[in-house]
């Protein structure tokens, strides 16, 4: 069975899960060629080792607390905070308590033609 994602114009709730957090799984909410939005659930003490996202990454903490390692620094993210990373930047995440994060990945076109503005036109 194919996973269903939110349709354009559909309202999607990302409110805190509260008591349902422990029994909820990670869900991809939106997936297109250029955009992916995921509600990532990390149980207390779990981590994601160093990895990259295929595009610009925006990470918003919806609930819980995580340590987010990127660009040579470690940040504690708590509800209401977000950070963003450039395309394909390595990062790692460790949950200090069960947490829900909203991940937005904006894929950058990798096959756009490069225009050399210094070349002369014939």
UniProtKB/TrEMBL annotation:
> Which residues are in the AraC-type arabinose-binding/dimerisation domain?
46-99
Entry superkingdom? Bacteria
Q: Which UniProt keywords apply?
A: DNA-binding
Which GO molecular function entries does the Swiss-Prot or TrEMBL record give?
Answer: DNA binding
Mind telling me which CDD domains this protein's record contains? cupin_HP0902-like
Q: What GO terms describe the biological role, i.e. biological process, of this protein?
A: regulation of DNA-templated transcription
Q: Is-annotated flag, keyword Lyase?
A: no
Question: Protein name, please?
Answer: AraC-like ligand binding domain protein
User: What lineage, starting at the top, does this entry show?
Assistant: Bacteria, Pseudomonadati, Planctomycetota, Planctomycetia, Planctomycetales
